[in-house]
Amino acid sequence: MRVVAGEFGGRPLSAVPGSLTRPTTDKVKEAMFSMIGPYFEGGRALDLFAGSGGLAIEAVSRGIAHAVLVDHQYQAVKTIKANIAVTKAPEKFSVIKGDAVLVLKRLAVEAQPFDLVLLDPPYAKQKIMANLTFMASNGLLNDGAQIIAETNQEAQLPESFGPFTQTHHRDYGITDVMVYGYEATDEEDGRSE
Predict the structure, then answer these.
(1) For every one of its 193 residues, what pLDDT tens digit does the chain have, with 9 covering 90 and above?
(2) Could you tell me if residue 20 is inside a domain?
(3) Contact (Cβ atoms closer than 8 angstroms) between residue 47 and residue 67
(4) Is residue 143 part of a domain?
(5) How far is CA 85 from CA 55, 71, 79, in A?
(6) Which residue range is the domain that position 42 belongs to?
(7) Which of 24, 87, 115, 142 has an alpha carbon within 20 to 30 A of 42's alpha carbon?
(8) Cα angle vertex 57, ends 113, 69, to 5°?
(9) Residue 187 in domain
(10) Which CATH number goes with the domain that contains 81?
């Protein structure tokens, strides 16, 4: 596992020990970023189920200014911190250990919206639509934000819901990758001012 492209391209990344996380393969990671970029000019990213941190590190390597990485597992957080150290740019990352829903509530209070959201939850506990709906209604997304959701085939996410519209969908064996665009409604714009 490595950083595929950008400033940190080629640097090796560690996987989380054990079987509780499943790292995104380099091939799928490359495909994901090709769908949405592949490079960025600043902005903030949120990796809500960060695992090893590989997706957020890839996003920063490709130009995202700052990434917030969230995971509830001690081993994952330890691995994320080790992988961030490989970048030699720790100031570009914030790591939060905690439950995704509770962390989203905390981030809503801080009112610093995101431009890119990476969602790769444990397949058995997918609440992607609920997470995104909460983010939209609590000012956590900038207008035009992009969301990458990595799921298994059973998830069956819709092509659109609320202010989210699917722009890409790729099937990689047991893994589905969907990209959604976010368009703020007038009501949501009012909340984030």
Answers:
(1) 899 999 999 999 999 987 666 677 788 888 899 999 899 999 999 999 999 999 999 999 999 999 999 999 999 999 999 999 999 999 999 999 999 999 999 999 988 999 999 998 876 556 888 999 999 999 999 999 999 998 887 777 889 999 999 999 998 888 889 999 999 876 544 444 3
(2) no
(3) yes
(4) yes
(5) 15, 17, 10
(6) 28-191
(7) 24
(8) 50
(9) yes
(10) 3.40.50.150
The whole-number pLDDT of residue 99 equals 94
Give the whole-angstrom CA distance, residue 155 versus residue 144. Answer: 24
What is the C-alpha to C-alpha distance for residues 2 and 6, in angstroms, rounded to an integer? 12
List the beta bridge partners of residue 93. Answer: 67
- Which residue in this structure is represented by tokens 């590989």? 54
Tokens of 137: 């209604």
Residue 49 lies in a domain: yes
Whose tokens are 């909460």? That residue is 134
